[in-house]
Amino acid sequence: MTTIFTNISPITNAYTNFNHFFYLKNTLNAKEVFVCVWDSFVYEDSRFYQGLDSKSDKFQKLSENIKLLEKLMKSLGLKYQIILLSEAWERLFKKSHYSQIFQKIMSKISVDDLKKGFDLQYIPYKDITLSRLNYIVADYLIAVNFAELFPELTAKNPKYYLS
After folding, report:
1. DSSP-derived 3-state class of residue 156
2. CA separation (Å) from 134 to 40, 94, 105, 112?
3. Cα separations (Å) of 42 from 10, 12, 61?
4. CB of 85 within 8 A of CB of 38?
5. Between 80 and which of 14, 20, 33, 152 could a Cys-Cys bridge form, CB atoms 3.0 to 4.6 Å apart?
6. How many CB atoms lie within 10 A of CB 131?
7. What are the E-state strand segments in the chain?
8. Could you give the CA distance from residue 142 to residue 149 in angstroms, rounded to a whole number?
């Protein structure tokens, strides 16, 4: 069984979110997917609030966006589990050795390194905030230590990590 850990930020119901799961199914032949929803990141994005109406709050809106993705995963026949980054983040940093690893990684990234990144011809790079950089590093640590952080979901780490 091909098990994958991936993340998604369902700020909107954009086609790219749907394409992500088609890619998992059709290209990677995913059977089981652990989906880390970057809820904290979604709540920081102004585009998310543009989609809110007077009838729903931010938690309801995120829930609606997730439910739409769940319908897609079900229709593709993916066995999936949704995990919120805020919950995974809490589990990761409860363990001091992961906090130390996180800090070690972050201490190796300099402002000059970030400046060099702006020269890359990768459009979203200029949209990366320090907050998002923290999420990226934490997400990776969560993925590679998933079985330890979520023993109730799996006994072994996912085979692939797709970010």
Report:
1. coil
2. 11, 16, 10, 17
3. 7, 9, 10
4. yes
5. 33
6. 11
7. 3-8, 32-37, 79-84, 160-162
8. 7
User: Please, how many CA atoms are within 13 Å of residue 16, restricted to the half-sphere of its CB?
Assistant: 7
For residue 83, give the 3-state DSSP assignment.
strand
Question: Radius of gyration over alpha carbons of the chain, in Å?
Answer: 16
**How confident is the model at residue 128, as a pLDDT?**
72
The partner residues of 5 in beta bridges, in order of sequence, read 34, 161
Which amino acid would we find at residue 23? Y
In this prediction the pTM is 0.86
Tokens of 84: 């919120």
Instruction: Quote the CA–CA distance of 22 and 27 in Å, as a whole number.
Output: 8
pLDDT score, position 133: 84
* pLDDT for 37: 93
Question: Which pair of structure tokens corresponds to residue 7?
Answer: 């993340």
Question: Angle at CA 137, nearest 5°, toward 7 and 17?
Answer: 20
